[in-house]
Amino acid sequence: MRKELREATDAAHRRLDAAAGALPLTCDHDYAIFLKAQYSARAAVERAFALTAPAGIQAPPAQTPRLARDIASLGRVLPVSAEAPRFDSPLEALGAAWVIAGSSLGNRTLLARRRKAGLSGADAFLSDPSMPEYFRRLLAVIEAADPASSLEPATRGALKSFALFEGAFADHLMEQAA
């Protein structure tokens, strides 16, 4: 089901990459905006997972404590959390967990880009090993799921997560422009 889920969410994934990719992350100012958008969206989705856990696996590890530490170390104030999505089923939550955990794949690249730019510190979120480990376990659950009954609700949950992050990045980029 992983391939089908990726195909069904490709456009949303590209939009989010374009929104987040607008932040070069090679200066602490832009990096703080990135972290604040992440915090805003992740705090919301962590609340949603507390109400509806993903099918076949526990909720992804909380990332907001690491993000809060990084934001504070940059001398910034924590943002307000976005409104929590509602997952109508554990399969929707599974699709959302796939988005949340899959985003960790790019974190090492972002960390390397910051270090290449001579920036260090505020890397508790980007360097966290718990999310890539969770993603490996999650992939086994997704691969074992029956696409005939799981793909539609998992796609809905994934699209809810992509929309949540896209909105958070849009809000924080507008804040930067103001």
UniProtKB/TrEMBL annotation:
<protein>
    <submittedName>
        <fullName>Biliverdin-producing heme oxygenase</fullName>
    </submittedName>
</protein>
<dbReference type="InterPro" id="IPR016084">
    <property type="entry name" value="Haem_Oase-like_multi-hlx"/>
</dbReference>
